[in-house]
Design goal:
Elements (H helix, E strand, L loop, with lengths): L53 E6 L6 H4 L4 H4 L34 H14 L3 E6 L8 H17 L3 E6 L2 H8 L8 H17 L6 E2 L2 E6 L8 H9 L6 E5 L10 E3 L13 H13 L8 E5 L20 H12 L4 E4 L20 H14 L12 H11 L4 H12 L3 H17 L2
Parallel strand pairs: 1-2, 1-9, 2-3, 3-5, 5-6, 6-7, 7-8, 8-9
Antiparallel strand pairs: 4-5
Helix pairs in contact: 3-4, 3-10, 3-11, 6-7, 8-9, 9-10, 11-12, 11-13, 12-13
């Protein structure tokens, strides 16, 4: 990520040991902090206008629980097991590696009920799909667990009519070399193998997101594979050649088709009035390329990490930070906006409903979509609460699965009125034991 004082490529090992899937903030570019500029389906669901924005949610698939996979993952307990998720702190909430707590409770990223809840919440907020943070297909460290969760999300996205794209972490190849899984001279081959796996398993499926007719592939970097010839060799191996996007200050050197932005602190320096923040952020985005098609811009709710060497906080401001950053993307010329992030609890960028913020961030996204589509977007803030009610009934285990599947289908089709009626009826029956 870009900070006021630019960060290096990697956090200290004490923060991210490389033994598990974790990601330090992106390094800052050597470009000016900002430049001000004057301007900134399923049946029943609304149809976007031809020029409507595509909203894609960056999603972390790295959470594990004992109930599903036998143990707490490091993203709940910390990378040195310094937290005890089974224990409740003085605030009455689980002791986890975060300042924030998911509203539905601690979860496993492979749990179908969790994926159902998350995707339906996104869908009712007006989000089109997910970009999943992915470490590839190797058997190094905890990458198989993250890969399994990513595949589960891919399948769930297809089930719920949501789009999917992968954001590859090329630092995973560095760990493979360091752990002597492959020699350094086989990096090109391993990257090629990964791209070909994606082409075979994902690219041809209807849920895979395509940009300008090509399957979109992001890389959070490049952090390790910096030779554009290596990327070209791997990407050219696919007959269905991906649209390759890298971080906004690295994409040109990597020979990518475009770049994507992440968290930018500078526009909020001093937290001036909203108009000035938006001018600054618009200027930051506009300075990166003159072609809107080459840039996927970002919107974020804030940043507040739990690292031992903490980084600058971007205040959430009760949803105002997300409102401002999303407005710049919605009002600007960029066709795709990445929402950063659904659930990076370690960095405090989560848009997912939490104990601390409730549904505030999803409501901001919903309001932005309603402003864009007007009466074509019918969903309300109350509708956003329905998937969590469905999730609670699934976890209670007292209502037949077929009845809950019917409610999920109603929500997926945008029939919130009937879904609410069914939830009320079944919830009442469950409470009375009838």
């Amino acid at each position: 990520m870009r900070a006021h004082s630019f960060w290096r490529l990697f956090l200290p090992a004490v923060i991210c040991s490389g033994l598990v899937s974790c990601r330090p903030p992106a390094p800052g570019p050597g470009t000016p902090a900002f430049q001000e500029s004057p301007g900134a389906g399923s049946p029943g669901l609304p149809v976007k206008k031809a020029d409507g924005k595509t909203l894609l949610m960056h999603y972390m698939p790295w959470y594990q629980t004992p109930a599903v996979r036998g143990e707490w993952g490091s993203h709940w307990k910390g990378h040195k097991s310094e937290h005890k998720p089974d224990q409740v702190g003085a605030d009455g909430l689980p002791d986890i590696y975060s300042h924030y707590h998911p509203l539905i409770g601690l979860y496993d990223s492979t749990d179908p009920a969790v994926l159902e809840c998350h995707l339906l919440q996104m869908k009712l907020a007006g989000v089109d799909g997910v970009i999943v943070d992915w470490y590839g297909i190797s058997d190094t460290a905890d990458y198989p667990e993250t890969h399994a969760a990513t595949r589960a999300m891919f399948d769930a996205a297809g089930q719920f009519g949501m789009k999917f794209a992968a954001c590859f972490e090329d630092r995973s190849l560095e760990l493979m070399v360091n752990w002597k899984k492959i020699p350094a001279d086989q990096v090109t081959g391993q990257l090629t193998k990964t791209v070909l796996w994606m082409e075979k398993e994902w690219f041809a499926k209807p849920q895979y997101f395509r940009l300008n007719g090509k399957p979109l592939l992001l890389d959070f970097g490049p952090m390790y594979v910096k030779d554009p010839a290596v990327w070209a060799a791997a990407l050219n191996s696919a007959a269905d050649h991906p649209a390759f996007y890298a971080l906004h200050h690295l994409w040109k050197d990597a020979g990518a088709d475009g770049g994507f932005t992440w968290v930018h602190w500078e526009p909020w320096n001093g937290y001036p009035e909203e108009a000035k923040i938006k001018r600054r952020l618009n200027g930051t985005f506009s300075s990166l390329t003159q072609s809107p098609e080459q840039l996927i811009v970002s919107a974020t709710p804030g940043f507040n990490d739990v690292y031992e060497q903490r980084h600058r906080e971007l205040e959430h401001r009760d949803g105002q930070t997300l409102k401002e950053s999303l407005a710049v993307g919605m009002e600007g010329p960029w066709p795709v906006i990445q929402l950063v992030t659904w659930n990076d609890y370690g960095e405090g960028t989560m848009i997912e409903p939490t104990k601390e913020f409730g549904y505030k961030f999803l409501e901001v996204i919903q309001q932005a979509r309603r402003k864009e589509l007007g009466g074509g977007f019918p969903f309300t803030a109350e509708d956003l609460r329905l998937p969590a009610r469905l999730f609670e009934l699934r976890k209670a285990g007292v209502v037949p699965a077929k009845d809950l599947d019917r409610i999920a289908a109603l929500l997926n089709a945008g029939n919130c009125l009937e879904a609410r009626r069914e939830l009320d009826r079944l919830g009442s029956q469950a409470a009375t034991g009838i």
